[in-house]
Amino acid sequence: MSDKDVVVKPKIRTRRKLDRPRLYKVILVNDDYTPREFVVMVLKAVFRMSEETGYRVMMTAHKLGTSVVVVCARDIAETKAKEATDLGKEAGFPLLFTTEPEE
Question: Which of 58, 69, 72, 83 could lock 76 by a disulfide, CB 3.0 to 4.6 Å apart?
Answer without folding.
Answer: 72
